[in-house]
Amino acid sequence: MSRTLADLVEMWCASSFPAPHPSSVKIMKAIRAWLLVFVIGLVLSGVTAFPLVTEVRVLTDVLHAVPAPDALVAWIDRVREGLEATGTNYPFIAYGTDWLAFAHLMIAIAFWGPWRDPVRNIWVIEWGMICCLAIIPLALIAGPIRELPWWWLLIDMSFGVFGIIPLIVVRRLIKRMATDSARSVPNVDVGV
């Protein structure tokens, strides 16, 4: 059986660039939806780290206007006092939180890789999962050193706990997509 060059090119293209399987399209949509949730969380965490003094002022006004636990009100008042004193006397210290905000935004950009090619960039998802887990020992070690109340550490650790959930879902979806793709790629002999 004689094959033309066009036949060989068509077979090579079919094996190298298979049409997406309908289930792969659904999986990709789900991956992107969960990634969007995670990235929005990172961006919000980053953007809100810039105007800390303003945010804490608003928060203290709200906490003094509504019924709130005394320990929470006292802690937020102390945070406001510390941020205002630091901003007045040592404004350059806030540059550290500017870098924190910047880091959150840059980490969010790293998830562009899995958005484009989840199977190839699954390592970004796994790295993000490690980062989420690492929040817990950081909070447990640095929190007491920095004299944070124990209940605030729980809030900080919740970012890791809730952050890892969409990443676990995304990782499972990527594994399923990789398995489906491996099954759908035909083994084509181009006869060369």
Automatic annotation (TrEMBL):
* Protein name per UniProt: Cytoplasmic membrane protein
Transmembrane region(s): 33-53, 92-112, 124-145, 151-170
Q: Tell me which species this is from.
A: Paractinoplanes atraurantiacus
Keyword Membrane among record annotations: yes
Q: Please verify whether the record's keywords include Membrane.
A: yes
**Record keywords:** Membrane, Transmembrane, Transmembrane helix
